[in-house]
Design brief:
This protein is an alpha+beta fold and about 140 residues long. The protein has 2 domains: about 5-85, 2-Layer Sandwich (Double Stranded RNA Binding Domain), CATH 3.30.160; about 90-135. Helix content is about 50%, strand content about 15%. The chain has 5 helices and 3 strands. The chain has a 3-stranded antiparallel β-sheet, with helices on one face. Helix 2 packs across helix 3 and helix 4 packs across helix 5 (about 115-130). It is globular, with a radius of gyration of 18 Å. The model has no long low-confidence stretch (mean pLDDT about 85).
């Protein structure tokens, strides 16, 4: 579906709301051997787009995300808020050996993270992103 097709189906208010949300999303644009670049958003890792240049990929990614978010809104769903607006309130407890904790804390510090929690979150999200690479773009 092309962006012009969305304008036929969705109201301008829904599209504006979706565009506003997507503007706050953290975009991730990565080089890709065949596609040039592949993009997604931290908040919506299952929506992908590709482009020959970084700029074209960013534009295509915003269009795909806007379509996905607008569709969610249109159907009465709640799309993800921008990561910058999300408060981290959920907690996961992980038991580690003292050696594991020490090694991870040193790796976090050496990598420039504020603390072990930020390091573990980043490592986990990298793994999550890798798990979704099999989805079609």
């Amino acid at each position: 579906m092309q962006p012009k097709d969305l304008k036929k189906i969705l109201t301008p208010a829904v599209l504006r709301k979706a565009e506003k949300l997507v503007d706050g999303y953290k975009m991730v644009i990565e080089p890709h051997k065949e596609a040039g670049f592949v993009g997604s958003a931290v908040e919506f890792p299952t929506a992908f787009a590709k482009g020959k240049t970084r700029e074209k990929c960013l534009e295509a990614t915003k269009e795909v995300l806007t379509a996905a978010v607008a569709t969610m809104i249109h159907l009465g769903g709640t799309p993800p808020a921008p990561a910058s607006a999300q408060r981290r309130t959920a907690q996961v407890n992980v038991r580690l050996t003292p050696t594991e904790k020490d090694l991870m804390a040193r790796a976090a510090a050496d990598s420039g993270f504020k603390g072990l929690g930020d390091f573990l979150r980043a490592a986990a999200m990298t793994s999550v992103k890798s798990a979704f690479k099999h989805l079609p773009s």
